[in-house]
Amino acid sequence: MSIIVAFVVFGIEIFTFHSLLSVAEKEFRKFTYICARIVIPSGINFGTILVTSFILKSRKVKTERKNFMVSFCFFMICSVLSVFHNYFQILLLSTCISLLLCSIFGDTRILKIQVHLIIPIFFIASITFWCDKLTGIPIYKILTIICAIAFISFTYVFARAVVISQKDQLKYIRKIYERQNELVEELRIDPLTKLCNRMAFNETISRIINLKKDSDISPFIVMMDIDFFKKVNDRYGHICGDEVLVSLANIMRSNVSTRKAFRFGGEEFILLFEDDNQERIVKIVEKIRQEFSEKVYDFAPDESFTISAGISAWKEGFDDKKWIEWADKALYFAKENGRDQIKIAELK
Predict the structure, then answer these.
(1) Which residues lie closer than 8 Å to 214 by C-beta, 6 or more apart?
(2) Residue 324: how many CB atoms within 10 A of its CB?
(3) Of 63, 141, 252, 289, which has the fewest Cβ atoms less than 10 A away?
(4) Per-residue pLDDT tens digits for 221-237
(5) For 35, which DSSP code?
(6) Is there a contact between 258 and 250 (Cβ–Cβ < 8 Å)?
(7) Among 307, 270, 328, which Cα is nearest to 345's?
(8) Is the dihedral of CA 284, 316, 212, 196 positive or negative?
């Protein structure tokens, strides 16, 4: 866009020089005129565009600085119009364009910098406008400059209002986006234990299986179940049963990442390991089993509760159901052989 504007300005100056100057204005057909109206302003425009293009292509420059360079590039082109081409009086207002363009970025700092740059540029442009013999009588020049100051001031107020409005809208959009993420996350969390729920588990196990097909990882699944949990509910009530479930969830959370632990349903829990080794996993599950069995509850201070666990590695050809099935087999083998223990699936 800036390149197009620069070429248009350059073309207009060439056209003006050759076609619009009258015979009486031959004194302006000099080398100084060509330098002041064509060579210097065009050199500034294309030089600024070149530097800006180089900075925009750099990966080391932050987005904020790139935004500033874009706004500065347009500011320079507008300043050149204002300073070197203001025999068209309307061009005294050209810096208003750069102010309006600043509002696109929604950054008050860029807008403030633009204003600080525009003040000296407008002062220089006013001097060149005053000294130009083609721009009319003094009273006309004074009125033109006063009107230009008023219009630029109004443009700044308008651009600032737009920037503030954009920032408010962005804050609102960000707030809505964060709330949506919270709601999505809440859908993935079990409200009682605060562990990931069945929906989150299904997503995670599918991702791990797909990842296993494309990379050399060693995923494991661990199924855990609280022994005789129905008796806990029947003897002490569901409130106390919930306390036991929360206790196990907290112990799991303290030993593994929250994203690895899931409440599968009822008193069943699952741990998913994306890439690990069997020995370390057994140690982790054993630590959870031991801590849970040592937990003391106010409603049953003399009684301890235990868990059984089954561990299964992933095997070639497994889908999620088959993988869960093998971990479940290991879990029930642990239950049928005394409970309060860990068993590893013997894959065939």
Answers:
(1) none
(2) 18
(3) 63
(4) 999 999 999 999 999 99
(5) I
(6) no
(7) 328
(8) negative
Sign for the CA dihedral angle at 91, 95, 96, 97 comes to positive
Q: How far apart are CA 245 and CA 251, in angstroms?
A: 10
Of these residues, 64, 267, 279, 325, which one is catalytic? 267
Scanning 16-62, the segments in alpha helix (DSSP H) are 31-34, 40-57
How far the first Cα of the chain sits from its last, in Å, is 67
Q: How confident is the model over 277-331, as pLDDT tens digits?
A: 999 999 999 999 999 999 999 998 888 999 999 999 988 888 889 999 999 999 9
d(CA 230, CA 244): 12
Nearby residues of 287 by Cβ (< 8 Å), 6 or more positions away: 255
Question: What residues pair up with 307 in beta bridges, in sequence order?
Answer: 226
Rounded distance between C-alpha atoms, residue 85 and residue 9, angstroms: 9
Contacts for 106-110 with beta carbons within 8 Å, 24 or more apart? 106/163, 106/166, 106/167, 106/170, 107/64, 107/67, 107/163, 108/160, 108/163, 108/164, 108/167, 110/67, 110/68, 110/71
* Structure-token match 């969390």, residue found: 189
**50 close to 69: Cβ distance less than 8 angstroms:** no
Strand order, beta sheet including 268-273? 261-265, 268-273, 220-226, 307-313, 342-344
DSSP 319: -
Q: For residues 268 and 225, is the Cβ–Cβ distance under 8 A?
A: yes
**CB 7: neighbour CB atoms within 10 A?**
13
**346 tagged catalytic:** no
Residue with tokens 């049953």: 300
Higher pLDDT, 28 or 89: 89
Distance CA 248, CA 227 (A): 12
Tally the residues of the chain. Answer: 348
Residue showing tokens 């600080």: 116
**Predicted pLDDT of residue 313:** 92
CA pair distance 132, 87, nearest whole angstrom? 7
